[in-house]
Amino acid sequence: MRLDSSLILACVLLGSVLVWTVRKFSTASPFRNLPGPPSPSFLKGNIQQLSGRHSNEWVAHLAETYGALSKITGPFGRPWLHVYDPKALYSITIKDQDIWLKNNTVANLSLLGPGLLVTAGAQHRKQRKMLTPVFSIAYLRSITSVFYETTFKLRDGLIADIQDGPKEIDILGWMGRAALELVGQGALGYSFDPLVEDVHNDFAEAVKSFFAIALWRSIAFPVLVLGSKLLPPQWADWIADVFPSKRVQRMRYITRTMKKRSEEIIAEKRAALQEGDRSTLQQVAQGKDIMSILCNESVKANMAASQKEQLSNEELTAQISTFILAGMDTTSNATARLLYLLAENPSVQKRLREEILEAQAGEEISYDQLNELPFLDSVCRETLRLYVSVPRRILNIICRPTVDTVLPLHEPIRGEDGSLITEVAVPKGTVAVLNLWACNTNKSIWGEDAYEWKPDRFLSPLPRTVEEARIPGVYSNLMSFHGGSRSCIGFKYAQLELKVVLSVLVANFNFELSDKEIVWNNAGVAYPTVGKESSKPEMPLKVSVIRS
Ligand SMILES: *[C@@H]1O[C@H](CO)[C@@H](O)[C@H](O)[C@H]1NC(C)=O
Ligand SMILES: *[C@@H]1O[C@H](CO)[C@@H](O)[C@H](O)[C@H]1NC(C)=O
Ligand SMILES: *[C@@H]1O[C@H](CO)[C@@H](O)[C@H](O)[C@H]1NC(C)=O
Ligand SMILES: *[C@@H]1O[C@H](CO)[C@@H](O)[C@H](O)[C@H]1NC(C)=O
Question: Is the CB–ligand 4 distance for residue 86 below 6 Å?
């Protein structure tokens, strides 16, 4: 008798504990009423599906099936948000940008230093304030001829490469070298690569493998994160230096190479400026590059002893690494994508060539003339709309609110229980993944043909729904360059670069697909490979010189 009642008591106790646990964990998810895909793994959640090399299909499925705001699962079953509703994006990137902070641990750990991609708060605002004027239209106008000069070298290098007739060449490799030289000449006032022949460039190779190494996907990553948190910086550095991992050592080599080169560039500029040595300054970019301007400012500020508003040496060095990285991988792959699309669509290529030749834009024309070419502009816009270079790079588009907040929606969504949801309460610390691509290709905003590449789209008035969605991107209703204070500071620079390179190349060469299959992959940046198995960035196209 006694045994029975204690057994019952035990059962009741155990039962209540179970019910309580289940309750707790089911109520623990603040988003249980939001639609969302199942999670295939407790450990990794949906991360693999979201960020794998061939994740485009799954991400399109996620966006289409679960709508503009859904729940996904992060590591260890954590509830994350997947967002592409324009109004929610507006809150995150503009209205409440001070509470929605990006997690920059990864960028920080990659030892980029305190540059724009890494800094936060007041320091970020200061840097942004100092850097914005140097990316002005006036600056771009003055730098256009530097872009042309460099691109003509690229043209001559290509001509030399295919002088024996049409040939299949790795266009991505050339675009990478050109992009590095364009950042070097245009932003840093420094020449990395003469571009005249097909030579190996160690520095370019180092920079190029930065994102591909994907340190944050390595097993070493959590250890390094922990190290950087617990240990004084010099110890953390030491640990990284002796860490028995090829990836980590490669990353250390890359960041060291970049840092060393950056320091050299700055020292050179400073010395020239202090001596008032105009001739050195004029050797490259006529002293109009961003770094000359910044160094000049900081030398002046030093003299005026107003230390507070200037960038420290460390910050300047970090900006250089940041510019090189941000400027090179994205634009080289974007230009390659554009040339691929033109090879795939010969009629568009022909039409573009006609516009360019008629305006003589294959030769040097002014910034304003170049921007007045409507078809060139539409081709660039449409490509950047559909093929965002950084579609959902986890490190760039994840943010978390520092306090509890609310995300309002442009269009209500239907919850799991059938009710309409117009806003979602988001607890502090929730990870939100912003799907920039899905916002750019939302059919109810852009029309039924939103997934198709149609440059003509931008030649006629856009659907009313585009205006109404009030998309918070800095560029052309698109999220391609992000919005708010985290938007890409160089987006006009990138556009100019794209246009100059494209106009010179299309005027001088014909591009055709080769019989190798090109596959586009996701890493830090979307990049092409031959076939699905290979992970080596390359893009062979058949190139021939147009002889007039
Ligand atoms: C950022 O991410 C790292 C590693 O993924 C994590 O350890 C860290 O707690 C995060 N920091 C913030 C502020 O969210
Ligand atoms: C980056 O690292 C520095 C020191 O190395 C630290 O002060 C800063 O808080 C870190 N930033 C982020 C976003 O982790
Ligand atoms: C293209 O993107 C990939 C992946 O981020 C990167 O490794 C590569 O350096 C980029 N550019 C070139 C020219 O390969
Ligand atoms: C487009 O965005 C709206 C919200 O603005 C959303 O309700 C809808 O599901 C999206 N449609 C598609 C096809 O992505």
Answer: yes
